[in-house]
Design the sequence.
């Protein structure tokens, strides 16, 4: 069981920046996929950014050019740097990792961290 702990959320004004962190209880080397998702009130959870095996990254169109996902294997942490934040970025942000097994995939989620963009 992989434990994930997110931090870094908070209240920020439009145009501001935040950096979210997700600390994992196991090495990131063993993960085939690492991602950040978000869920706004009344909406479905959606992918924000992900790192596929290796260093290939993917982003939702709505955050391209503003958000950057990265990981530091040495401390088992993945980050989401968010800049030029907009009110529509307000949501609970979740970290997710996936790891292949012999049959199927294990998927683990953090508890989420609230990001609120408001003046």
Sequence:
């Amino acid at each position: 069981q992989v434990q994930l702990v997110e931090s870094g959320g908070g209240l920020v004004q439009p145009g501001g920046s935040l950096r979210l962190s997700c600390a994992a209880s196991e090495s990131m080397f063993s993960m085939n996929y690492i991602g950040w998702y978000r869920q706004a009130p009344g909406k479905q959870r959606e992918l924000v950014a992900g790192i596929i095996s290796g260093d290939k990254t993917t982003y939702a169109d709505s955050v391209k050019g503003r958000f950057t996902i990265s990981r530091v294997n040495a401390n088992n942490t993945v980050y989401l740097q968010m800049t030029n934040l907009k009110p529509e970025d307000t949501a609970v942000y979740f970290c997710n990792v996936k790891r292949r097994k012999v049959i199927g995939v294990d998927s683990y989620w953090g508890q989420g961290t609230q990001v609120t963009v408001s003046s």
